[in-house]
Amino acid sequence: MTRSTSDLPTVLFDGSRLGLDDIAALSERRARAVLSREPAFIARIARGADFLDRLLKEDGVVYGVTTGYGDSCTVTIPPDLVAELPHHLYTYHGCGAGRFLTAEETRAVLAVRLASLAQGMSGVSVALLSQLEALLVNDVLPLIPAEGSVGASGDLTPLSYVAAVLCGERDVLYQGRTRPAGEVLAELGIAPLRLRPKEGLAIMNGTAVMTALACLAFRRADRVARLATRLTACNVVASSGNAHHFDETLFSVKPHAGQQRVAARLRADLDTGSAARASRNEQRLQDRYSLRCAPHVIGVLEDALPFFRSLIDNELNSANDNPIIDAEGERVLHGGHFYGGHIAFAMDGLKNAVANVADLLDRQMALLVDTRYNHGLPSNLSGATGPRAAINHGLKALQISVSAWTAEALKQTMPASVFSRSTECHNQDKVSMGTIAARDCLRVLDLTDQVLAAMLITARQGLALRRRADPSLAVPPALAAFEADLSDRVPLVVEDRALDRDLQALLAARDEAVWNPHA
Ligand SMILES: N[C@@H](Cc1ccc(O)cc1)C(=O)O
Q: Which catalysed reactions does the entry list for this protein (predicted)?
């Protein structure tokens, strides 16, 4: 399982701006994390920790250092117990539940937290940053339960599992096995941390879990927009639909840039070359909305993506704990930067836009399997002919599954942020629920990917059967290459067969070209 990472590109943590693609690269081990050792950077980090030390010696009052946490900020911590306080923070937050974050998600969490602390505004030591780097470099992954964050004292409970592992406690996933953190750190010659005052809060009192999940969700949603566009083009051809619904002049009068981009992609996919004019369905001047308005549905997602990217990237590049330590100005700034409202909004919005695309595809499939709407294709897109047609049911059950997955995706679109509730003795009386929104969004993406896999089978089947009905059909060049790739992967359904293996094989190929058109 161990793989040398030294030849990989690096992502440098030195306080300068990172992007969500950097986090994705680290999460998939396509890049290696490197913490800057530049003297200026090290000095900047050390200044924060030194300032806190000085403040403590001068008997200053700092929230979460000389006081209890949250609503308990009115409790004064006796000086001889200050050192123990950070360890209590992660200990009593060890109450997470639910599934564990995946290896990819966990790497993203570590990287996002490191990015935030490397801003130099959290008063942590260089040793803490190095320890986080060591977890990433050695791929020692804290087992983080996904549930238990309200997303506005940051992701306190899930991040307590990061804090504990840095200190050699709780469990990690290492080389494919779950083992005690202390054992693995010892094996690697890494000394457990003893957290300094404020360091527990610095690790835990922030938005790293929701932001990490958002980075990964964003990239998957971008793929949904592009592949759904390609599939729409296939479905237009398969159903003998009209290409003229995506006319350039038509879209020039509705100036949503993303929607225009989707229409342009459809034009490119449906372009049959200079000789042939855009195909026109003789039976129907205007196709039904799931085809005609595809740019208006996918375009919402396409237009929302750049805005959501900016929200996610800004959160990624923020100091998002409390208090913020301004070593330069020698001030401790008490605020609420752990509040993940922007990520909550991005994830609530993204899951809505993605699920709408799943719904669009479900409607397109409904047209294709139905002889009342598919303009001459066989019922259920079955490839069987002659007497055997009677017992074959083609994609009938696959369409039912698509309806189920779509319904479940749509059901997950209830915004999480509006379920804010007062908690923690009314200190946290308004919270973001951003981590729940991000988990919902990932679930919607899982279900939508299943819909996309089914639609890949449908496209393959639909194009082949349209050609059978119309042997002179000229499949546009962009789609011909796509169809050839699909045909290699999915045999034509002639006699009924279980399609679960085809679905799984397609889902396993999500990084490949067939899933990533218009890249
Ligand atoms: N997020 C809280 C801190 C907090 C930490 C731990 C808790 O258990 C509760 C609250 C604040 O900064 O105000």
A: L-tyrosine = (E)-4-coumarate + NH4(+)
